Amino acid sequence: MASIRKRNDKWQARVVVAGQEVCKTFLYKADAARWAREQQTEMEKAVAHGCSGYATLAMVINRYLDEVLPTRRGRGQDTYLVRRFLQMPWTELAVAKVRPEHIAAMRDLRLKEVSTGSVRRELDVLSSIFNHAIKEWRLCRENPVLLIKKPSPGRARQRRLMPDELERVIQASQSPDFTAIITLALETAMRRSEILGLQWSNIDLGRRLAFLPLTKNGESRYVPLSSKALEILQKLQRRSDGKVFDKNGTSLSGAFQRAVTRARKLYEAECAQAGVTADQKYLTDLRLHDLRHAATTRFVEHGLNLIEVSAITGHKTLSMLKRYSHPDPELLAKKIG
Prior knowledge:
Layout: E1 2-7, E2 10-17, E3 20-26, H1 29-48, H2 57-67, H3 75-85, H4 100-111, H5 116-135, H6 165-172, H7 178-188, H8 192-196, E4 203-204, E5 209-212, E6 221-224, H9 227-235, H10 249-274, H11 290-301, H12 306-313, H13 318-324, H14 329-336
Antiparallel strand pairs: 1-2, 2-3, 4-5, 5-6
Helix pairs in contact: 2-3, 6-10, 7-9, 7-11
């Protein structure tokens, strides 16, 4: 940032880049303006060549957006998060001068706005930016994100599907392929991105398998197809681009929430007409990702062991699998006799 002001009948030019300040005084304003432009250009060039003394965190973030994120999985969601960081006032500091207290202040502010899980995700992304700046660009020596306490993960989500709930949501949908996608989610426990990334070339209907070449955890896996999932895929019309579905994650999640809202309103109208009280838990607080929880739980309740379930779902640890599996306590009571 450059500024020019008149002082003692002379013109003082001031340039600040990455917390580094230079000043010079001139007799004429035009000379001061020219010098300021040239000086700012030179300082920004120094940043481009990796001079840590001038690199602001904002510059590092923008470089990360341009060079690193396009090569990462899940770049769409991460791009949104990374751009949010640019709104923080301390991103104009030299990257080496960002302190843990800056990160802690952001953490505390965000905890008032979003869930602990969301804040942990944001901190992970920001930590990745600092790590890249340290290891690849040599722009700083310390990752301040590692020097603060992350919020606890919070309790695992326990939302179970209630009888006929999903059927009502499907009936309320006005989105093409919605039924097929929702059914596949419940039958396979695939993530939203995995379903929407399906390619016909990776589906073997004869062997009843869908191959996912690259998943969230960085590994590939085969997903077995139930009879219902197989039937859904056999009925779909094949697209010329080889993709099974033509949707993005944001539009699908939005369509799901709109369908839930419409289904709830219809349910409330039916209850009012019948003169009964609507169940406050029915068709409320239902998310698309709950279908992955429901499918995982169903696999366990159908008698599959944990190794078999993890092979289907792609969970790498027992702790993560436990967060997604919520067996019905009544069924457990019947099993133990």
